[in-house]
């Protein structure tokens, strides 16, 4: 009887943990809306949620802020800067403390670009910054 109840308890624990959602980092996006929308930034930032990152940097303690800024110069050159910052989570667990532990910034310019090409460049630069952030955190 004891074996059966212990087996059922273990089975229940395994089944409930199998359905548990992957912890998510708290994210703050402060990007220029005409370069990248919040959904695209959030989708790109999901690359940070890897098993290694979750093991090394708990979402209960750390979050991320993204900034994609830029636009067109007078000569129609698209200029983009993308930044990802790793920030500590505040005491409440619902806010980020703007004291960056790690920052990664990427930038680029594309002469004669259209608005769509500029948006693609913004997405590419944010993806590059996210990948550099993951690499620097896992390798350090």
UniProtKB/TrEMBL annotation:
* Entry keyword set: Signal
Where does the UniProt annotation place the signal sequence?
1-20
Task: Return the protein name.
Answer: DUF302 domain-containing protein
Q: Which organism is it from?
A: Roseateles toxinivorans
Show the taxonomic lineage: Bacteria, Pseudomonadati, Pseudomonadota, Betaproteobacteria, Burkholderiales
